[in-house]
Amino acid sequence: LPWRRTRDPYRVWVSEVMLQQTRAEVVIPYYRKFMRVFPTLRALARAREQSVLSLWAGLGYYARARNLHRAARILARGGFPTTAEGWRRLPGVGPYTAAAVASIAFGQDVLALDGNVLRVGARLVGIRDPIDGAIGRRRVREALEQLLPSGQAGAFNQALMDLGSTICLPKRPRCGVCPVRAWCAAARGGQEDRLPRRRSRPPKALRHFVLALVRDPSGRVLLVRRPRNGVWGGLWALPEVEARGWRAAKPGLECLLGVPLRRRRSVGELRHTFTHFVAVYTVVEVEVEARPRTGRFVRADSPGVPVPAPIRNVLRWLSRPDPRKPGSPRKAPPHKSVRACRSHADVSSQHLAYPHDRQVRHPFS
Fold first, then answer.
1. 16 CB contacts (<8 Å, ≥6 apart)?
2. How far apart, in whole angstroms, are the C-alpha atoms of residue 206 and residue 315?
3. pTM metric for this prediction
4. Which residue from 177, 211, 309, 322 puts its CA 20 to 30 A from 40's CA?
5. Do the Cβ atoms of 314 and 238 come closer than 8 Å?
6. Phi-psi bin for 151: left (phi > 0), alpha (psi -120 to 50), beta?
7. 2: Cα separation from own chain's centroid
8. Residue 157 in contact with residue 84, Cβ under 8 Å?
9. Which residues contact 165 (CB under 8 A, 6 or more apart)?
């Protein structure tokens, strides 16, 4: 793993932020590209937020990128903290990231406890309490802190992290090549597939959204910029309203874009899993009678702005040979329903403040 070859606090910190809620094999190409573009803290601090988001597009959890950028500007003025407590004061840095950076880059004797480490610890020690509960988490922490070698916390934490991400996997752990199998309570008792335990969770709710595909006479696609707060904050995406179908979505989309819309055809459907719900997106191509009052038209094959992964996949699909060219927008005075609707900010805020997302496969892949 490229971030294990250095104790540079900047590189360690960036890698740990990228690894939050994201698998190591997914992070590797993003990390390498990020380091080529922003090789130093000062380079990141001087960058525009849109440039940072563009490199981050596809990793999900975009608040991480915004907080990373904010924290870089703070660090560029005051320098790197050397303790976990100091790192906790920075935007977007929680207990795990703070402990990881402080132990790896500065040698502080502190345990970094994330999902991978919790799983390894529960199996290693044989803890049967759910690790997503307070008791199970506390028992794993206490057991691993007793094993923490003084002066080598960074190596210990990295070993646990990498063991969990490459060998002690959530499903079908690779016990045959595990270097600590001889000391593992779960392996001795044949419980590796049953541990760790988690509390039962209710099924995720299903929510429906309509995405408007608007194109200009040259075939470029309209994207609007998302509000800074909420999912995909600051990125560009197709105009969107939460609704089950075109008829219900039409008024909200007209308010969002400030022009009357006419449905042309249904393009397709995709699903995307967020932290607390599953979103079903219906993409509908529409015609406009005037230029929309918000957003910008971009080429589907080269948008030139940061775009979240699901929308980028839709754009890739649209850039394939076929998509029929829409007619030219006609000039027309604002429709009375558009004049009567609320502002773009009021409408868009209704459906943009939902939790962070993760990528799933969908028909536009």
1. 3, 96, 97, 100, 101
2. 24
3. 0.74
4. 309
5. yes
6. left
7. 21
8. no
9. 23, 24, 116
Give the whole-angstrom CA distance, residue 276 versus residue 271: 14
Cβ contact 239:344 at 8 Å: no
pLDDT in tens, 254-307: 999 999 999 999 999 999 888 789 999 999 999 998 999 999 999 999 998 889
pLDDT in tens, 155-205: 999 999 999 989 999 999 999 999 999 999 999 999 999 999 999 888 999
State mean pLDDT over 318-337: 48
Taken in order 129, 132, 133, 135, the sign of the CA dihedral is positive
Instruction: Provide φ and ψ at 213, rounded to 5°.
Output: -100, 105
- Cα–Cα dist 222/172, whole Å: 44
CB 209, CB 241: distance < 8 Å: yes
Catalytic residues: 16
Buried b (16+ CB within 10 A) or exposed e, 260-272: bbeebeebbebeb
Q: CA separation (Å) from 130 to 114, 193, 216?
A: 14, 14, 54
DSSP result, 258-326: TS-EEEEEEEEEEEEEBSSEEEEEEEEEEEESS--SS-EEEBTTB--S---HHHHHHHHHHTSS--PPP
In terms of Cβ atoms closer than 10 Å to its own Cβ (0-12, 13-18, 19+), residue 143 is middle
Task: Order across the sheet with 296-298: list the strands.
Answer: 236-237, 221-225, 296-298
